[in-house]
Design goal:
about 150 residues; alpha+beta
Length: about 150
């Protein structure tokens, strides 16, 4: 189904909202964002399991409960808006924070998730594909190997 202008506006609205949530959490939760100089946040949401990490850092943020609820809800809505039955939907994204509140998202539709992969067993990948179907030719080989394991 082709996306409409309203779909793209809703996607942009959710991206802005997620950026705002990250900045608020960074401002008020110094345990999660200890140095305040975070320039990239890596987010994985597979079958409703949220993982947030900072690339090239040892720290895994201890995010607040309210942030986790609000951010997960926003991510799920964004996945719904961006979903396409042919291509599926992204598995993870990185949010790059720039100067003057600039930001951009990089969405990962098919690359294996290297950060914190031990947090996700093969069943999570099966569940994710059942929830967000995609055509056979758009299932990456590495993912197919995970879902074919029994």
């Amino acid at each position: 189904m082709k996306k409409t202008r309203a779909d793209y506006q809703a996607i942009e609205k959710h991206r802005n909202y997620m950026h705002k949530l990250i900045l608020e959490e960074a401002t008020f939760n110094h345990r999660a964002f200890p140095s305040g100089d975070i320039d990239e946040v890596f987010v994985v949401l597979l079958f409703n399991k949220l993982t947030i990490a900072f690339p090239n850092r040892v720290v895994v943020p201890q995010i607040s409960h309210n942030f986790q609820i609000n951010f997960t809800s926003a991510i799920l809505e964004l996945k719904k808006l961006m979903y396409d039955p042919e291509f599926g939907v992204w598995m993870s994204f990185s949010l790059h924070l720039g100067i003057n509140d600039s930001f951009f998202f990089l969405f990962n539709y098919e690359e294996p998730i290297d950060i914190l992969t031990e947090a996700y067993d093969d069943q999570v990948y099966r569940d994710e594909l059942n929830q967000w179907t995609r055509s056979e030719e758009n299932i990456p080989e590495w993912w197919r190997q995970k879902i074919d394991k029994k």
